[in-house]
Amino acid sequence: MAGVKSKKYDIVVIGGLGHVGLPLGIAFANKGLNVCLYDIDPQKAKEVMKGRMPFIEYGAEEVLKKTVGKKLTTSLDMADIAKAKYIIVAIGTPVDEYLSPKLKGFFDLFEKLKTHLDDSQTIIVRSTVYPKVCKQIETFLKKNKLHCKIAYCPERIIQGYSIKELNELPQIVAGLTPAAEKDAIKLFSVLSPKVIPVRIGEAELIKLFANAWRYIMFAVTNQFYMLSTAHGENYDNIRKALMDGYGRAASIPSAGFTAGPCLLKDTMQLASFTSNNFQLGITAMQINEGLPDFIVAQLRQEYDLSKLTVGILGMTFKADIDDIRDSLSYRLRKLLLFNHANVLCSDEFVKDSSFVSKEALLKKSDIIIIGVVHSAYKKLSFPKSKKIVDLWGLTKKS
After folding, report:
1. Whether residues 193 and 257 fall in one domain
2. Residue 174 shares a structural domain with residue 280
3. Tens digits of residue pLDDT in 234-250
4. Which of 42, 59, 91, 233 is most buried by its number of CB atoms within 10 A?
5. What is the bridge-based pairing of β-strands 309-313 and 171-175?
6. CATH code at 110?
7. Nearest partner of 63 among 19, 21, 28, 11, judged by Cα
8. Is residue 213 domain-resident?
């Protein structure tokens, strides 16, 4: 990292207290770099400076306590961005109500940043971006007489396991210029076991393709689940028999709610990029987002929901984390309430005064729907006298 020491910080991470920026900043600080986490959330900043993670990332808090106040600090002052050689942008890039990318906030950021930038800095976009956005950033900066080097280094980490994967997974790197690519390679070589240089357009699509592929794969298994269930067959038994000794089917995942802040969003960004001609992705969205509707429709064929208590066990968007963003368990709850059911919810990681314990949910519910498979649920004894909706195959031990 020679040449980086001319500024106070090696790295400033914009969005540094979020799910992408914070683990990345911690990981770089653990490698000896001086890192500043810039964000607009004062409460999270206080927590981090006390050595406490504001959300679940396994193994992160131990490293945070070791680096905070030494190699790692936080800032709520945008002026600190001028003090870094590398600027990593890790803000969220959501889609709007039409499932199209919301880019205004992203470019508004650079409008605010321009007075804190100089030509010696390298801007690394870590956020998932719509294709050609990096080139638009360069054009904007040039209009403002700025010639920062711009690179795109997408994250491909599984939430909750960032610290482990940041040190294990290869890093895709692309620069708009050879100098930008060189700087990005130098930086991420400190952290990643392998750096893979590609063209900027390739890098932008790699990230979107990676999440769209997973989203489509889950849609396939969810469609199989719905087909099997609609015909009175047990999909979990079908899947296990299909996979047994048959390598070509070994990658079929279990059915289950497919949600969270990335998979749907990035698939829809690809659809928007192709003027909604990405039919495979659009269909995957309809299948995955429609799974709660299918469950409720199946229950309505069998029961008068207005006379029953339905329990949803697990409200986060994936197992063993505390993130509820875009969780389909909440969509399921709305649908059940619309059908006048009494709904109980429980989760090991979500603080909500309206929730009940898992034990109370099992006891009081007439119907139990497993929303996500937290590790604690694997030890539960589910009452055989009650209707269990188990997409994941958790209760089928044979």
Report:
1. no
2. no
3. 999 999 999 999 999 99
4. 91
5. unpaired
6. 3.40.50.720
7. 28
8. no
